[in-house]
Amino acid sequence: MARWLSAGGRCSWRRLVVCSLTCLLLLQLYSFSNRVSVEVEKMKLLSALHPFPLQEHEQVEGLILLPPFGLKYPHKINLNEEFLNASSTARTIFFPIGAVDPRGDAKNDKHYYRPGKTWLDTDGNPIHAHGGGVLFDEKSMTYYWYGEYKNGPTYHAQETGTARVDVIGVSCYSSKNLWAWKYEGIVLAAEEKNETHDLYKMKVLERPKVIHNERTGKYVMFMHIDDATYNKASVGIATSDSPTGPFEYLHSMRPNKFDSRDMTVFRDDNGTAYLIYSSVRNKEIHISPLSQDYTDVLNETARALVGHHREAPAVFKYRNVYYMVTSGCSGWAPNEALVHEAESIFGPWETIGNPCVGANKDFRAATFFAQSTFVIPMPGAGPGSFIFMADRWNPNDLRDSRYVWLPLTVRQRNERYVGLPLWSRVSIFWHKKWRIPVRENGESNYVIDLQA
């Protein structure tokens, strides 16, 4: 009897241990299952907000500047001073040797942008489209890049001491892929002899932009027109029946009697277009709707960023929110870009910060040593993906100014990053070398060769 109780006790004890271990294991499995479910939901949320893996152009890329560059105290380099110093031994940091050449790049190296390097056209000549913008023409399914043609000697204007090149005209380049550009010529030429003309070569023509008017069929060009002292501060307008010109110059004006310097144009989804320009001697940004034929402004002016001293506006739209990238006013010296957003083109505009991501602190504080000029949608990429166009000016030799094209990503206001760096909702990512999204075979989803 005692042996039976003892054996039964041992058996009950074993069953108790087994049951306890089983319950503990079940609890662990339940807890693990709950944790997995939570992590899965987090991954679903994160995937919706910022898909894994990150697109190639959204990878954060740092920049390490290896000393000594021949400088006496490499650990005390002031990059802004070195940038403006034509004899600096650090010059190749900002103006790298080599070129992007669509004629000769190897197949596995095609379609890569290399910010800061010389960019050649399909004839092998450096592209001259500074301060410009890109128009996608739906008729021809072709991109057209317009800009200042600065292939002339740099000198300092007597009136202001500002580095400048005589006005040559507005250039045009065409492309099917935003990478290989064919030179279409000077589509609006300077005036060589008539000193009273707005386009006289000793005056100022800057930041040309072109939009298409579906009502009239005309291509309308806007540009900053000024005299040698920068006191005229007007907007010039020209039109053409073709995106490749020639453009006929119509007139200049001060929009609604306000001075106008750095400017851009923006065409909204409904066809209404707007002139956006620095005014009141760059103290504020003005926005004015254009007439139906796009050759004048309506009697309406919204004032934005009053007292902020911003210039070089680049305006774009994503999911019913308007965004504007601007530069500070520091002449040829680069400065910090800021992004502003608004639910209406007329504002109010809210400043949401510096969009630059990657490189290093000095590069971010100087907009990668470039200045904004335009923003275009990135073909073949996901929602909220754009290309940020900027100029890296070379005041010592303006014809050798370079282009800095970088990926720009926009997140919606209600989106939050989970487990990712909390950079701005509008982010411009630094890359020494990058390209728009491609398939596994290396071909782009949209690239069409110019020869095709």
Question: Can you tell me about this structure?
Answer:
The protein folds into two domains: 1-49; 56-429, Glycosyl hydrolase domain, family 43 (Tachylectin-2, Chain A, 5 Propeller), CATH 2.115.10.20. It has four helices and 25 strands. With 452 residues, the chain is α+β, with helices and mostly antiparallel strands. The chain has a five-stranded mixed beta sheet, with no helix packed on it. A four-stranded antiparallel beta sheet has the order 3-4-7-8, with no helix packed on it. β10 and β11 (234-240) form a beta hairpin. It is globular. Residues 1-9, 38-53, 416-422 and 448-452 have low confidence and may be disordered. The N and C termini lie far apart (100 Å).
List keywords for this structure.
4-stranded antiparallel β-sheet; alpha+beta; glycosidase; 452 residues; single chain; Glyco_hydro_beta-prop_sf; 25 strands; Glyco_hydro_43; hydrolase; disordered C terminus; 5-stranded mixed β-sheet; Tachylectin-2, Chain A; globular; disordered N terminus
Topology:
Layout: H1 2-49, H2 79-84, H3 91-94, E1 99-100, E2 118-119, E3 130-137, E4 142-148, E5 155-156, E6 163-164, E7 169-175, E8 182-189, E9 204-212, E10 219-226, E11 234-240, E12 248-253, E13 263-267, E14 273-279, E15 284-289, E16 302-304, E17 310-318, E18 321-328, E19 338-342, E20 350-353, E21 356-357, H4 361-365, E22 371-377, E23 385-392, E24 402-410, E25 426-429
Parallel strand pairs: 1-2, 21-25
Antiparallel strand pairs: 3-4, 4-7, 5-6, 7-8, 9-10, 10-11, 11-12, 13-14, 14-15, 15-16, 17-18, 18-19, 19-20, 22-23, 23-24, 24-25
Family: Belongs to the glycosyl hydrolase 43 family.
Keywords: Glycosidase, Hydrolase
Pfam family, one: Glyco_hydro_43
